Amino acid sequence: MAVLPIVKYGADVLRRPTDPVAGIDEPLQKLIDDMVDTMYAAPGVGLAANQVGVSKRLMIIDLSVGKRPGELHVFINPQITAAEGEITEEEGCLSIPDFVEVVTRPERVRLRYLDRNGEEREMWGEGLMARAMCHEIDHLNGTLFVDHLRGFKRDRILKKISKLAKSGMWG
Ligand SMILES: [Zn+2]
Asked: If both were cysteines, with which of 33, 39, 85, 159 could 107 make a disulfide (CB 3.0 to 4.6 Å apart)?
């Protein structure tokens, strides 16, 4: 088990749509364990594989950040099969640390995916779970939460990031 470096905004791997996971094997299990360690250490409630530099359709969510057993979810090749409602709340990202902004997301989403044993599953997420599911699925498609922002809100964040990058304090 290992804590991996988290890739930050500006890295190509965050912008490429990830490849589907072809087989549930030992290296994949190790990657999942390392991602869990990395998410808990950050700390964060969700992490996509391309955030640790691996372009695979794999993401994890634990709203309790490891505090409550049974709340860790591993989603392999996830797809949204239904979405309902709309809710606007603050959102942040481990790849864009220290920035939060409000983003509108569905209130409920249903995911179809494989669990870490390769079993096909479906799950409804609501509220923060739905938000995390949409945020991580976005990552797997090469999209970041700042892409949902417009105008001043988006410019403000991107300007600050480029300033940090210029002074060597980003990435
Ligand atoms: Zn993120």
From this structure: 85
Distance (Å) from CA 47 to ligand 1 centroid: 7
Distance 146 CA to ligand 1 centre (A): 10
Instruction: Look at the block and give the residue holding tokens 């088990």.
Output: 1
Half-sphere exposure of 98 (CA within 13 A, CB side): 8
Alpha helices in the chain (DSSP H): 26-41, 128-140, 151-166
Active site residue 90: no
Cα(81) to centroid(ligand 1), Å: 21
- The model's pTM: 0.97
Tens-digit pLDDT profile for residues 122-169: 999 999 999 999 999 999 999 999 999 999 999 999 999 999 999 999
| Sign of the dihedral through C-alpha 111, 34, 142, 147 | positive
